[in-house]
Amino acid sequence: MIRFILIQNRAGKTRLAKWYMQFDDDEKQKLIEEVHAVVTVRDAKHTNFVEVYMLAFVVMHYFPPQFRNFKIIYRRYAGLYFCICVDVTDNNLAYLEAIHNFVEVLNEYFHNVCELDLVFNFYKVYTVVDEMFLAGEIRETSQTKVLKQLLMLQSLE
Amino acid sequence: CFYFRLTLSNNTSLFLQQAKYISTCIDEIKQELKQDNIAVKANAVCKLTYLQMLGYDVSWAAFNIVEVMSSSKFTYKRIGYLAASQCFHEGTDVIMLTTNQIRKDLSSPNQYDTGVALTGLSCFVTPDLARDLANDIMTLMSHTKPYIRKKAVLIMYKVFLKYPESLRPAFPRLKEKLEDPDPGVQSAAVNVICELARRNPKNYLSLAPLFFKLMTSSTNNWVLIKIIKLFGALTPLEPRLGKKLIEPLTNLIHSTSAMSLLYECVNTVIAVLISLSSGMPNHSASIQLCVQKLRILIEDSDQNLKYLGLLAMSKILKTHPKSVQSHKDLILQCLDDKDESIRLRALDLLYGMVSKKNLMEIVKKLMLHVDKAEGTTYRDELLTKIIDICSQSNYQYITNFEWYISILVELTRLEGTRHGHLIASQMLDVAIRVKAIRGFAVAQMATLLDNAHLLTGNTQRNGICEVLYAAAWICGEFSEHLEDPMQTLEAMLRPKVATLPGHIQAVYVQNAAKLFATVLQKHEGETDSQVAQETSQLLIERLPLFVQSANLEVQERASCIIQLVKYIQKLQQKNVEVADEVTALFAGELNPVAPKAQKKVPIPEGLDLDAWINEPPSESESEDEKPKSKAVFAKEEPKHSRRHTEVDEKELARRREVRKQEQANNPFYIKASPSSQKVFDAPGVEHIPVVQIDLSVPLKVPGMPMSDQYVKLEEERRQKDKADKKKKDKKKKREKRGKGRKADSGPESEEDITPAQQVDIVTEEMPENALPSDDDDKDPNDPHKALDIDLDKPLADSEKLPVRTHRPEVLKSPAEDRENESIPQESKKKSSKEKKEKKKDKEKDRKRSKEEKKKKKKHKEVEEELMESQPEEAVQSEDTKEMAVPPTSAEASDLDFWLSSAPVPPAAQVRSLTLSPPPLLIPLSVCRVVNERLFCISPSGLSRFLTSLCLFSLLFTGLAHFCLFAYACFS
Asked: A46: distance to nearest CA of chain B, Å?
């Protein structure tokens, strides 16, 4: 199950944060900072997976042991990091693929997406997320279907 | 533009400007929210959502969000729901107000309204909302539009978590959705059931045939991955399922091109193989296939695949170490990888790959990596892994403990490690439990103490100076092995020691006394008692430093021991022999205690700590009686206490003032100084600049052992051993390496390597009649625990979801609601579907009675089968039967039938017994609490008591022996 989806730029500014589990505001900010700190120092030589122990600070201070069973799967596109936090037992490659799928949909929807698109249309990005993920699960994987729905929703406004 | 301004201002120098900008923004938003225009309001809420994302608190606008949510226009509604899903949580009180609004939206004719409401609900559903809306969402699961069905199915999972009672009534419909015509809905249902089953797999075993069908028919890799993962969770409970799975999974492994699917298949095959008894001939092919595929992954240039390959490999390692060990070269290569997580995975694998033969070689390689390692975290991880590898299963793989001690000593030279404590406990453990090594260990520890200045640089908690704790203790406790106790004693009393953490100083002081005893013992009887007297003099000179310590423990021990030494010095001057009595202080062997021993102390029968010892006075009585019978005292008491407090407040303040003044005027009063050590410092010492020498290469300490040396020696020894075996008559050669080498008589290991020392590993002590148990640390707050519900039982009427009625009040207290549930409601609004369901239930009830008869028959059959196949397991057949055929479930017997098409070896069935989840050990956890309360004695208090007892008894030397042993235990 997905715990949160995060899009950050290289400076650590949040571009999207969708939480599928209850976190305090404090915890959220700490997690965002920690994820940024861990992810930005990794390069092509590193895996796209971040294990819990790398987030030592947040994990030790905020989560009791039974909540430490997660990992972060991220992918970098230009200056943006797309991170998905999932259970330890989940399939890394599947979620890596899910991120790519998501980015492709964004690219299609915004016609060559860039960071500013995400800033100005942040509520639309949330709609895209909601169309593709729901309640911590991958809801729709077909790009055509998602895009069709998104266009329908847009036409309602 | 608002969003753009926020983007630009992420420069740190603009931080203040940004804060100012945002506060003006928030003021602006507040103004906008006050307006009646819904468009303006919605825009303001939208901005707030953005601010919330950036981490600003917007909880104050919760009510406005609800307002926007209830707008009839979709555009605004969507903004409202987005804001709610981002900002609301269980503690938000306005959520209560939304119930009706959400219900209205859910049943809206516009599917997008419904969709938006569902999406929002998935984020902020609370137990109350879940209870009130469960039925509505369940109805939506059979909506005409797949778009809504899909969402409703996924949200049910959240509802289950918040309102577990809804699982049983909703489950039949959820199951239906597995065969929904729309593949999206199907995959949603698979997702939800997989998520549920992963937490409580045994309740979902009956769905296995259905999932099997899905697996063989589906072509959607996303769904396949989920299903295969689910099977991975189910197989440990039902090994027969695993047998059935192997073939389709191997086919998939061969055919698929998707790495994610391949990886999942390999993982589940591994799970299957683990659940099946190993050694089955036809499975070695599957293992080989898995290992081979994983090797391809590990060799891939893609770091992700490499990492996952290693991860899966470590799972195989547990059951089939042999097939992994042949890839040692590959795994050692991964230790050089640039990514830390890959290296760590490789380390995990190495842990399982060591044997007596290759331990030294592997550890040597790891030590090289320790030297090369850049980050402290990775170096620390290496350190712990080295220790883990060496110490695993009671030092099973160590053949030469001298080598191990020298490795530990080498590890102390790591800079900036946080695992000083770990190394220290290893040193202690080895020195205590391997008797033959003590002589060597003591010599090494003495050098460590002598070179303590190298280790004291890092005085932080768990820093490397912790090692000195172990060193001091070992030198003290086994001081009879010391060559020059006088020198070690001198090293332990250097003024520098006072900079160490308190608990280490305490051990120093205590063990200085032990060494003192040894020195006395050594030199007693000599005509010239110079040395003994010098030693007493040394102690008397140096100990006052510790008496002044800020640490209570150190102070106390030091002052006790200094008195003791003074007394002994007096006796020495009278030429009285005291050595025997002083050594008696520390007589007796200290044995290690198992870490769980305390927990395992059984609870005495009939002990109930919660019971009152005396009957508690009833409250009403005491209130009535006080004014009557105790009137005399009742008047006095309050007065008395009031006077007391007056003294406390006024008097104390005044007295304190007076005292301060007195102290200020008194030239003999030493004013408070920040630390006691400063008194000793010459004036102006602080001003002398101290040059920090940053040594990149740790200084080589003379006398420190190089572990390599031992590796060589060990190799020579092994060769010699081999040679010895050939020429058995030349036995004297074996004695060449002296020391603790008595291994010749010991049993030979499977690999023909005899340990260098007679490894007499002292086992840890456990209390008598300890309770055998594996206490699993299950979290009582885990929400998934509530979902552990038997889903195959037919639904009772009382369990039906509350259907909404026409009653005006929406907000009901939970207690009321539960009452309503139990009373069968007259539901006019029940949809036709629900009626159908009820019919089904009735049918089921009818079926059940029939089934029970059938089941009895079946039980007998199974029993007979078992008796035939394996008569010696007859005792366990009762449980086996329960596993194989869960009672009261029609589906389960279907499952049985489905599975029985593949013949089952009885061994596998019996194995399922051992894998079944352990029963909840509630009584045990209770007794643990009791025990901890019972036997929790403060150690420092006890040691103080014993210390005084000890001194006292020294004066009456006859009495000494009995309490000294107790004292030694606590030193």
From this structure: 5
* Alpha-carbon distances of B666 from B105, B657, B661, rounded to whole Å: 83, 14, 9
Identify the CA nearest to B464 among candidates B502, B423, B427.
Answer: B423
Q: Which of A18, A22, A33, A93 to mutate to test the interface with B (most CBs of B within 10 A)?
A: A93
Residues of B in contact with A96 (CB under 8 A): 260, 304
Tell me the per-residue pLDDT of B304-358, one tens digit each, with 9 for 90 and over: 888 888 888 888 887 777 788 788 888 888 888 888 788 888 888 888 788 888 8
What is the pLDDT, as a whole number, of residue B333?
Answer: 83
CB of A93 within 8 A of CB of A103? no
Q: Nearest-CA residue of chain A relative to B87?
A: A25
Which long-range contacts (C-beta less than 8 Å, at least 24 apart) are formed by B914-922?
A: B915/B236, B915/B237, B915/B239, B915/B275, B916/B237, B916/B879, B916/B883, B917/B202, B918/B774, B918/B776, B921/B773, B921/B775, B921/B776
Residue pointed to by tokens 């998104």: A150
CB-nearest to B198 from A89, A119, A134 is: A89
* Tokens matching residue A57: 């600070």
Instruction: Kindly calculate the radius of gyration of chain A based on its CA atoms and give it in whole angstroms.
Output: 15
Q: Is B679 exposed, middle or buried (0-12, 13-18, 19+ CB in 10 A)?
A: exposed
List b or e across B33-42, with b for residues whose CB sees 16 or more CB atoms inside 10 angstroms: beeeebeebb
Of B505, B515, B518, the C-alpha closest to B558 is: B505
Residue B486 pLDDT > 60, yes or no? Answer: yes
The complex scores an ipTM of 0.93
Decide if B339 and A140 are in contact by the 8 Å CB cutoff. no
CA distance B160 to B162: 5
Structure token digits, residue B333: 């290569």
Question: Residue B180 has what pLDDT?
Answer: 85
Cβ contact B304–A93 (<8 Å): yes
Q: What is the pLDDT of residues B81-122, one digit of tens each?
A: 999 888 888 888 888 888 888 888 888 888 888 888 998 888
DSSP 8-state code for residue B211: H
What is the bridge-based pairing of β-strands A137-138 and A133-134?
Answer: antiparallel
Beta bridge pairs of residue A5? A18, A84
Better-scored residue on pLDDT, A110 or B851: A110
pTM (2 decimals)? 0.64
End-to-end Cα distance, chain B? 71
Residue with tokens 């030979």: B748
Q: Please give the average per-residue pLDDT across A21-40, as a whole number.
A: 84
Closest C-alpha among B42, B32, B50 to residue B66: B42
Radius of gyration of chain B (CA): 37
Helix, strand, coil distribution of chain A in percent, nearest 5: 50, 25, 25
Residues in chain A closer than 8 A to B122 (CB atoms):
20, 134-135
Among the partner-chain residues B158, B220, B225, the one whose CB lies closest to the CB of A135 is B158
Chain B residue numbers with beta carbons less than 8 Å from the beta carbon of A47 are 303-304, 306-307, 339, 341-342
Q: Taking CA atoms, what residue in A is nearest to B345?
A: A51
Q: Please enumerate in sequence order all residues whose Cβ is within 8 A of that of B53, keeping only pairs 6 or more positions apart, or say none.
A: A14, A16, A17, A122, B86
Residues from chain B contacting residue A139 (CB–CB below 8 Å): 150-151, 154, 184, 188
Compute the distance between CA of residue B280 and CA of residue B592 in angstroms, rounded to an integer: 42
Q: Which residue has the tokens 């709610």?
A: B84
Contacts of B184 in chain A (CB under 8 A): 139-140, 142, 145
Q: Do A130 and B54 touch (CB under 8 A)?
A: no
Q: Do B1 and A122 touch (CB under 8 A)?
A: no
Q: Do A14 and B195 touch (CB under 8 A)?
A: no
Which residue does chain A place closest to B779, by CA atoms? A66
Say if the Cβ atoms of A49 and B304 lie within 8 Å: yes
Closest to A42 (Cα-Cα) out of B338, B336, B337, B378:
B338
